Structure prediction request, 167 residues.
Amino acid sequence: MKEVNIADVAPQILKQIEKGVFLTVKQGDNTNTMTIGWGMLGRIWNRQIFMVLVRYSRYTYELIEKADSFTVSIPKYNTLEDALNICGTKSGRDIDKFKECNLTCEPGKTVASPIIAECDIHVECKIIYKQPLDPEKIPEEIKKVHYKTQDYHVLYYGEIQKTFVRE
Prediction:
């Protein structure tokens, strides 16, 4: 793998995130991945940040709340669609998503959370801030579409430690 600047691969990440990317977290002996379709790349506090959203109901939430890092693994556009579907609809409480989807964990180079070997871009992040969404401040039209069951998100701000591409 080759280290790159996040700006060099941001267009590919933003294009693929609409189809889904893998958010992976390791906490203690437990590792889980889930598909995310929302996230933000940016610069805050003079740091490069990848912000991800995780609902309270997700198994990943249980892990990320106690973790200090996460990774985002991005497959090539229009690949790993079955794995993205399973990881976005099944819970790591019930199945081993890595086994079910034939995904391989590889250790992160700078963080405790692993990357998914079958992907082409990997972003390793250290959690530096988290913020639960305030339901009172979310417009009603958004709540009606995205929060019908009131299962809100927590925002996790990950300082990007390193970004790699598979050669």
About this structure: Residues 2-165 form a domain with the Pnp Oxidase; Chain A fold (CATH 2.30.110.10). The two ends are 6 Å apart (CA to CA). The first strand starts at residue 2 and ends at 4. The beta strands are 2-4, 21-27, 30-36, 39-44, 47-55, 69-74, 105-106, 115-116, 121-132, 153-165.
